Amino acid sequence: MAAPFLQIDGVAMRYGGVEGTLALSGTSLDVAEGEFVAVVGPSGCGKSTLMRLVTGLWPPTEGTVIVDGREVAGPLSIAGMAFQNPTLLPWRSILDNVMLPLEVVQPHRRELRAKRGSYERHARALLRLVGLEGFEAKFPWQLSGGMQQRASLCRALVHDPRLLMLDEPFGALDVFTREDLWDVLQDVWLAKKPTVVLVTHDLKEAVYLSDRVLIMSARPGRIIAERRVPYPRPRRLDLTYEAGFQAIVHELRDRISDARRAVEASDAP
Ligand SMILES: Nc1ncnc2c1ncn2[C@@H]1O[C@H](COP(=O)(O)OP(=O)(O)OP(=O)(O)O)[C@@H](O)[C@H]1O
């Protein structure tokens, strides 16, 4: 069997030195190349911390993170990232923000001068896909929060990353836009098959989009259970109204409630 594309082994993360907050402890998980996994868990259990370790933004206090056979030792260039609070650069237009990874990540950086026309067409096509046609020349502050979030998703996708790390990318969107973007993401995944890790509080989103949902314990977080999602793709929104789908969502909700209760019991005097 091929080695997993992403391998997290015995990872712990403590912020702020020995007396600091233990965010993760004994966290292990494997993700196969081209797999789409969702990570869910109680608030504050360390989901964003996990994303930071995988993308090399922080080193773990203990354990190892391996991506594509190499231990992560710094910011990872093969990853595309999108977070709940879009961090678009205010002095760049939307199109220039979306094109930013092409100026940074090889081989695109090398090829940008020669291929600028086709790169720009690709960026414009992504913006069209998420409903931002006509806003390419605007600046982030001229767009609503939800529109900025859509632009940030385009920026995460523009360099066709092999690993896509998404931390609540649809969190601030209204339900209709969110569901539209689920299908945009599904289409991109079907077309390019990147390995995706999606952190979300929305259990319906987790089940609709992923092959496997990983459930984290309360802080210090670790993976305590997983649920495979059996539905073939492309999935359509009608699926979310089916009894079997809703049963999976309820099962996940119960597991997270149990994890939260376990913590409340251990906090009791
Ligand atoms: N930079 C930091 N410095 C100190 N503590 C931090 C830092 N970032 C996160 N923490 C702490 O680590 C723990 C886990 O935080 P993290 O943001 O990873 O959780 P989360 O599961 O993503 O939370 P949420 O579901 O609320 O988004 C929390 O107790 C948080 O306060």
Automatic annotation (TrEMBL):
This is NitT/TauT family transport system ATP-binding protein. Belongs to the ABC transporter superfamily. The keyword ATP-binding applies. Residues 6-243 form the ABC transporter domain. GO terms for molecular function: ATP binding; ATP hydrolysis activity. Coiled coil: none annotated. Pfam families: ABC_tran. The lineage of its organism: Bacteria, Pseudomonadati, Pseudomonadota, Alphaproteobacteria, Acetobacterales. PANTHER family: ALIPHATIC SULFONATES IMPORT ATP-BINDING PROTEIN SSUB, TAURINE IMPORT ATP-BINDING PROTEIN-RELATED. CDD domains: ABC_NrtD_SsuB_transporters. Signal peptide: none annotated. Keywords: ATP-binding, Nucleotide-binding, Transport.
